[in-house]
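Posting for a labmate who doesn't have an account.
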Amino acid sequence: MRSFVLTCLIFLPFYSFSQYPDHTYLREVSGIEAGGWYRIPIPQEMLSQLRPDMHDLRLMRLGEDTIETPMLIFSEGYSKSWTGVAVKELNEKDGKFTFRYEGEVIPNRLKVELAQRNADFAFDIEGSNNRLIWEPVSRGNRVIGVVDKNVSYGMQVADFPPTEYKFYRLIWDDPSVQITGVSLGKEEEKEGVYREYAVKSWKIVNNTARRQSVISIDLEQRVPVSMLSFDMEDEGSEYIRTVDLRYSRQTVTETDGSRQYLWRDWDRIVLSSLEAPIFHLDQVTTDHIEIIVYDQDELPLGIRDVKIGGLAFEIRAMCSSEYDYEVIYGSESPRSPDYTRSRPPSDIRTATLGPERLIRQDDEAGETKSFGNSITGTAGGVWSNWGQYVIGFLVAAAILLGFRFLLRWMKKRRQH
């Protein structure tokens, strides 16, 4: 019996598995001083360790039972909405187009559709409540359309302060304009919450042979990117350029120190002096971006700087001050968590994440705070401490019994 117990104690350490065998990193949550909803900002340096879909991120509640806590990964991106009506009847006289506004919102934007694909027209907008006295709404508006083998671009809107009139009219500088449709309404924009990423290096190369300028940008780390903005020198000149964007989904460093990029197309945009050079794009995760500006027969644009940004992410969860919490992440093949989610209030408290720790190192040093019986949740593979010892005990017992059976068998063979 003594040998049996000794054997079990010897083999138990070999079967004392990690609390989180499928995850690599851990951060403690601090600042939970009362029960309720909390927002926990995800720091930028943590993003490079997360999967692009963030399915490996888990919030764990520590106590007698270590369980997975339902959470939301929240971000607020750029958005815009349009509420407007198309003009049903458009009256034209002496180059003036008059119409009645039948919308329910106070308008701040006019959209014009032209028959001409290539066009550049200027017009003024006036408003009236009786069609006798007209007051200015917006002066010097332009609609532009450029369609050729190099670029396809249209700027056919006019913005103005919210102004309410029963009637509006458009006064054009060129009577040859052909209008096919007009819409008037209200557009609302939400800027969203973004963070700007540190750029490790960037350079611009003007390739005269290909008639294009190529901007290469290296980021400090691999992060989710969804916004670009340009700082232009050509503030007084007009330009329209087609721009292709691509990103590296994987970077390979060769033995000689050179870097090879596995490229993927991202988007095609148009850089125009008529609009703010800020672009909100589909999110990609990368550490290297290439911007190709097609100059064609024009002079290269003066680009002073390019800023790279991404959404600011945070965890939102219902927490209790009676427990400690930690987040775990860095899993190769997690499955998507499935929670019954409730909508958090708009006014919630804020908690913070501590420094990153390696889970394996914490286990070896005995620093992991999780203890007691663990309940397996959607994290998949949260081991019970008691279960570890039971498994170790059974394996050790099986080895001992097998060894004793072997000794008996050898003893009987010798007797024969």
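Reply:
Got it, the structure tokens are right above this. The two ends are 28 Å apart (CA to CA).
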